Amino acid sequence: MAKVTAGVATSHIPAMGAAIDLGKTGEDYWKPVFEGYEFSKKWIKDSKPDVVFLVYNDHATAFDLKTIPTFAIGCADEFQPADEGWGPRPVPVVKGHPELASHIAQSVIQDDFDLTIANEMEVDHGLSVPMSLMFGQPEEWPCKVIPFAVNVVVFPPPSGNRCYQLGKAIRRAIDTFDEDLNVQIWGTGGMSHQLQGPRAGLINSEFDAKFLDSFVSNPDELAKLPHLEYMRNAGSEAIELVMWLVMRGAMDDDVEQVHRFYHVPASNTAVGHLILENRT
User: Fold this and answer.
1) How many whole angstroms separate alpha carbon 133 and alpha carbon 111?
2) Rounded to two decimals, what is the model's pTM?
3) Crossing angle of helices 242-250 and 160-175, rounded to 10°
4) Which of 107, 135, 225, 232 has the fewest Cβ atoms nearer than 10 Å?
């Protein structure tokens, strides 16, 4: 049977992708950011996932204001890198796992969560930057990927608890897939940041630290945090952190924190990163 072995959480800041693509990771500004992922690159070579279920948000590339799904699962054989205005990032095409994705869709929808099924979808920096941070710049990605897009761009986004419970439903689906697969769940986005208005550039490291602590040790309570608290304390774009809760819901209650990294700033954002492993 398929098995969820680990969860990865990381920011997906577009400027980090640009720094990788332009060979700037060793510059003084960027070096301490990317040093936080050196352990992660070594760890993932040992953990060797067959499939990454990657939770991210689309940035008006695959979905525009005409159609905004709350949750969309990619069930295609492959997903092309999106052109976000500067041309597509020079990264490999994402190879999907349509059999597992379709199984998850069937199971989760029957578990009373409504999903949009995407049989054709381009993927933007929300997905490609985490892949680059973890795998570097290979000729092709070393595993299959199931993209899972969550609307955290246009009101109303799903609640943290909705995302957390959805993660549990995804875990139930993966546990019943009849193929021996090592599956990792990734939650991306965040941490505290705001990109517009009088509070543009807001970073709240105290909020971020408490979020990271609770995410590992007390996710049930963290999932109850309302949207307004994210926005008030950590900026309007901090609502992306509810996507991490999809990952946490798919993990065991008892997890081991393998790696934790936090850095300010990268562009105008706080960078957060966790690797969790199920103990069993």
Assistant:
1) 33
2) 0.97
3) 30
4) 232
